[in-house]
Amino acid sequence: MSTLHLRGDSSLQRWDGGRTLVGGSPLRVVRLSEAGARRVDGWLRGTPVPADPASRGLAERLVRAGMAHPVYGDGQLRPVDVTVVVPVRDDADMVADLRMAAGDVAEVIVVDDGSQIPIDGAALRNETARGPAAARNAGWRRARTALVAFLDADTALERGWLEPLLRHFEDPTVVAVAPRVRSMDGDTILARYEYLRSPLDLGAVPGPVDSTWPNPERGNAVTPRVARAGQGRQPSRRLPGHGLARLSCQQARSW
After folding, report:
1. Hey, how many other C-beta atoms are within 10 angstroms of the C-beta on 172?
2. E-state strands within the chain
3. What is the pLDDT of residues 167-213, one digit of tens each?
4. I need a labelling partner for 148 at 20 to 30 A (CA). Which of 59, 162, 217, 219 fits?
């Protein structure tokens, strides 16, 4: 089991000697015993969270409330445990660049969603465009790994983009993680606005996103309710089941 540390959210306030915690979004109140307060005080000072069920349960409670954020050490998952799915339409050159930038993943599955000129090397092709959600659903069903990364063709990836996301899956209740998505800087007024005020950029503060997820094994759509860190770029998801979605904005970024 990976080492777990907690970092307090900027909203967190502690009262009554640490026995009452206030913070998160939406705002919540958590009341602790004296023993629990001492544990949390130590964790926020840098002590690792022990692996026993009581400690991990309390830490998860704070994370789900948005009062604290997990920081994991190195885990067991590697890029080779991930399949990348890319829905694309008429952007063949971008797909080639993304294949190179994806790194040592298990496979990159390109779904050609009705391109006028068929994209060379695409694993699947829709003769008419069905939209990125349908293309992603078709792509992940071909994956042979436990984790799937959904990327748009125009995504620019930083080196080491995937490893910080994978660490969150050390928590078995996490089913999805998204990075911070930034817009590229540029010389035009629009480019500068997008860089500073892009609606795709949810900011530098991490936190839980949603706790209710569709189950692909039952045929539900993958993308309409997943954590949207901008135009469908949801870089990791366990395929089956329900659980916690987490937005990880600090350590992983894409453009």
Report:
1. 10
2. 4-8, 13-15, 20-23, 28-31, 68-72, 82-88, 107-113, 124-126, 147-150, 174-178, 180-181, 207-208, 236-238, 244-247, 253-254
3. 888 888 788 888 877 777 777 887 777 777 776 676 667 767 654 54
4. 59
C-alpha R_g of the chain: 20
DSSP 3-state of 144: coil
* 69: three-class secondary structure by DSSP: strand
Q: Measuring CA to CA, which residue among 156, 167, 144 is closest to residue 236?
A: 167
151: amino acid identity, one letter: L
Q: What is the DSSP letter of 157?
A: B
Q: What b-and-e string marks burial along 41-56, b requiring 16 or more CB atoms within 10 Å of the CB?
A: eebbeeeebeeeeebe
Helix (H, G, I), strand (E, B) or coil at 166: helix
Count CB atoms within 10 A of the CB of residue 132: 20
Q: How confident is the model at residue 62 (pLDDT cuts 50, 70, 90)?
A: very high
